[in-house]
Design a protein that fits this description.
The protein has 360 residues and is mainly beta. 9% of the residues lie in helices and 55% in strands. The chain folds into two domains: 179 residues, Beta Barrel (Porin), CATH 2.40.160.20; 134 residues, Porin (Beta Barrel), CATH 2.40.160.20. It has two helices and 16 strands. The two termini are 36 Å apart.
Length: 360
């Protein structure tokens, strides 16, 4: 059953990527485009005492980065000061060749300018897949207690700035944070974190030239700012016994959303879980919590972050607070899908895939 679900998820992801590629290829010619090579230097960040022994030497990173900047074809381009979107491939060393080895990742990202201009300082958020060379193995690598699978999710945050050297050539500087985790699909999953300084060179294949148009107000006019959503889905995780069996997580969320303007909203959620990994818990397998957060709107795509507290059946006294990072794609005004990473501080609990419906 687990293999069938994994195959179904991969097939669904493949279909989404194929369909998205047709739309992207047709629209890229409308946007400013840059191809860049970045070098990073930094190191491992031990976020828990249990992983301090993994700290090694300097971690180096190489990136191949393709970025396009919006030109104003849609209203949200103007509202976000013409945001950047792109894809990046990275190869990096961990600084600990014995216990962690090398890593690779591929990410989709969005860069939000902090002010208007041709080369503004921007905050970049990315998510994708990562590969870690050396993982936990009870016989051969038992000290590598942070990650139990080669394939992981990878999340990146970065501040970066471009400097114009010549008409089509730029110097890139940045500082960023990267996190690898498998969402507790396979234990151990304490996660590993890295920080890097970046230096890069970029070639601008097409320069930024915003379409001249009247300013569009972000303010909501006439719409009901409140919206209620029902979200249901599932996730998979292992428990802390290091056994190979997987446990299913049923998810049912009621979410009240209050629009601040056309590009952001506040969120209040009632989170309910049927967590079969807690089958030996005296309080049972049902968990509930209340979370608050915010959502950024990019046309049909939305990014959200919430912080919550358990109302019933917290996993432990140290894990009463949880976080949620969400990506939504809206098929219509009513129906959407959501990919969500739930974690306790810097340790992932599980990843779940859900379907949601907007109820006015």
């Amino acid at each position: 059953m687990t293999k069938l679900i994994k195959i179904s998820l991969k097939f669904l992801l493949f279909k989404v990527l194929v369909l998205a590629s047709f739309g992207i290829n047709a629209q890229l010619k409308e946007h400013a485009q840059t191809l860049a090579f970045n070098l990073g230097s930094g190191g491992f960040i031990p976020h828990k005492n249990a992983v301090k022994h993994l700290l090694g030497g300097t971690a180096h990173k190489f990136e191949l980065d393709y970025t396009f900047r919006t030109q104003g074809q849609k209203d949200f381009h103007q509202w976000y000061k013409y945001p950047y979107f792109g894809i990046v491939y990275a190869f990096e060393t961990s600084g600990n060749p014995i216990l962690i080895g090398n890593m690779q990742s591929i990410n989709l990202f969005v860069g939000l300018p902090l002010y208007s201009g041709n080369n503004p300082l921007r905050f970049r958020m990315g998510a994708g897949l990562g590969y870690i060379q050396k993982i936990f193995d009870l016989q051969n690598n038992h000290k590598s207690n942070a990650i139990g699978s080669h394939i992981n999710s990878n999340i990146q945050f970065r501040f970066e700035k471009d400097f114009q050297l010549l008409p089509s050539h730029i110097l890139k500087l940045g500082i960023g944070f990267s996190h690898f985790s498998n969402g507790s699909y396979q234990k151990p999953n304490l996660g590993i974190n890295f920080a890097h300084f970046y230096l890069g060179y970029g070639f601008q294949m097409k320069k930024h030239a915003p379409i001249e148009q009247e300013k569009v107000s972000k303010k909501i006019t006439g719409d009901n700012p409140f919206q209620f959503k029902v979200i249901a889905g599932f996730g998979i995780k292992e428990n802390v016994t290091l056994l190979e069996s997987k446990y299913y997580i049923g998810v049912l969320t009621g979410q009240l959303e209050r629009k601040i303007n056309h590009i952001s909203s506040w969120i209040l959620s009632s989170d309910n879980y049927i967590n079969y990994a807690l089958q030996n818990n005296p309080k049972g397998i049902f968990q509930s919590g209340l979370s608050v957060g915010s959502m950024l709107h990019f046309d049909k795509v939305r990014l959200g972050f919430c912080v919550g507290s358990y109302l019933w059946n917290a996993p432990s006294e140290e894990e009463t607070i949880y976080n949620k990072i969400m990506v939504e794609y809206h098929f219509s005004q009513k129906l959407f899908c959501q990919l969500l990473l739930k974690s306790h501080k810097a340790t992932a609990d599980f990843i779940n895939l859900t379907l949601g419906m907007n109820i006015k």
